[in-house]
Amino acid sequence: SQADRYAVFGHPIGHSKSPRIHKLFAEQTGQNLVYTAQEVPADTFKAAADAFFAAGGKGLNCTVPLKELAWNYADSLSEAAAAAKAVNTLALAADGNILGDNTDGIGLLNDLTANLRIELPGAAILILGAGGACRGILAPLLKQKPASLVIANRTPARAQAIADDFKPLFPVEACGYEALPGRSFNLIINATAASLSDELPPLPAGLLAENGTCYDLAYANRPTAFVSWGLANGAAKSVDGLGMLVEQAAEAFYIWRGRRPATAPVIGLLDAERQSADRN
Ligand code: NDP
C-alpha cells in the first residue's frame, strides 16, 4: 500500500532535522510513511496547506513563521494549542477536519523531566523572551506547580500580556531585564531568538541558583551563547533544545500514528552527529 505523507512547512526550512527524526521514528516503529520538508513563506501558507491535504497528505508540522497561521487554519484546536495561540502540528481527522495541536510545551516538559530529571515542583523558574515559544511552553510548566515563574523580556509589555492571559492558571510575573539583578532561579529557560545570532540578553551574575539548570530552546552544532553562559555561571546542567525538538516530534508522531517512538536513541544519534559535524 502507498505510504502516508507528512511534511514540515517553514521559512527557512533548509536545515530542518524533522525529516530525519521522523524517518528514524518510522523505522523504529515499523510505520510506512514519507516525511518531507517544504519551503513555505507565510503568504503562501494557506494555499500550500490546502494543496497538501487535497493531495492526500495526512499531517503537517509548522515552524517559524507559520505557527499562528496554522492556529487560524485548523478546524479545531487542542487545549494546548488554544492556550499557546500557536499550532505546530496539524492532523487530518477521519471526518476530514484538520485538528491543530501544539506539542512544543509537552516536548520541553518531557525533555526536562524524563531525560534531564529536573525537579519542577517548587522550582523558581525564569523564562527569557515573550514570543510564541514562551507562550507555547507555559501551560505544561505551570501545571508542574513551580514556586514562581517570571517572564523577562526586552519589551516588557509583551511579557505582561502573556502573564495576563495565564493569570487564571498561575500568578506569572512579568518584567524587563533591568529588574533581574538580585534575584535567583533554579531553572532559566532561554526562549528568545537571540542565541541564533550568538547574542544574549543582559543577565546579571548570581541569576542562577546553586545547582541550577539552563535550557536554551534554540539548538546548534556548537554550544549556544546561552548554554555557554550557563556553564560559565555554575549550572549543574546547561543544554540546548535538541532534546525538545525530538520530544515535540515524538508527540506529533503519536498524534498521527498512535505509536510512541523511543526518543533517547534518536537524541543520542543526532547529538553524536552534530559533534562530529562540528569537528569537521
Ligand atoms: P519569536 O520571534 O516569537 O520571539 C522572539 C523573542 O526573542 C522575543 O521575546 C524577542 O524580544 C526576543 N529577542 C529576539 N532577539 C533578541 C535579542 N537580541 N535580545 C533580547 N531578546 C531578543 O520567536 P519564538 O518564540 O518562535 O522562538 C524563540 C526560540 O525558540 C527560537 O530560537 C526557536 O528556534 C526556539 N524554539 C525551539 C523549539 C525546539 O523544539 N527546540 C521549538 C520552538 C521554538 P522582543 O519581544 O523584545 O522583540
From TrEMBL:
GO CC annotation terms, alphabetical: cytosol
Keyword NADP: yes
Chain positions recorded as shikimate binding sites: S16, K17, S18, T63, N88, D104, Y219, Q248
UniProt binding sites for NADP(+): E79, G129, A130, G131, G132, A133, N153, R154, T155, P156, A157, R158, L217, G241
InterPro entries: Aminoacid_DH-like_N_sf (IPR046346), NAD(P)-bd_dom_sf (IPR036291), SDH_C (IPR041121), Shikimate_DH (IPR011342), Shikimate_DH-bd_N (IPR013708), Shikimate_DH_fam (IPR022893), Shikm_DH/Glu-tRNA_Rdtase (IPR006151)
A Pfam family of this chain: SDH_C
GO MF annotations in UniProt: NADP binding; shikimate 3-dehydrogenase (NADP+) activity
UniProtKB keywords: Amino-acid biosynthesis, Aromatic amino acid biosynthesis, NADP, Oxidoreductase
EC class of the enzyme, as a word: oxidoreductase
Active-site residue list: K67
Domain of life: Bacteria
Catalyzed reaction equations: shikimate + NADP(+) = 3-dehydroshikimate + NADPH + H(+)
GO biological processes: amino acid biosynthetic process; aromatic amino acid family biosynthetic process; chorismate biosynthetic process; shikimate metabolic process
Alphabetical list of SUPFAM superfamilies matching this protein: Aminoacid dehydrogenase-like, N-terminal domain (SSF53223), NAD(P)-binding Rossmann-fold domains (SSF51735)
Pathway: Metabolic intermediate biosynthesis; chorismate biosynthesis; chorismate from D-erythrose 4-phosphate and phosphoenolpyruvate: step 4/7
This enzyme's EC code(s): 1.1.1.25
UniProt subunit comment: Homodimer.
Family statement: Belongs to the shikimate dehydrogenase family.
Record function comment: Involved in the biosynthesis of the chorismate, which leads to the biosynthesis of aromatic amino acids. Catalyzes the reversible NADPH linked reduction of 3-dehydroshikimate (DHSA) to yield shikimate (SA).
HAMAP family: Shikimate_DH_AroE
Listed name of the protein: Shikimate dehydrogenase (NADP(+))
Gene that this polypeptide is encoded by: aroE
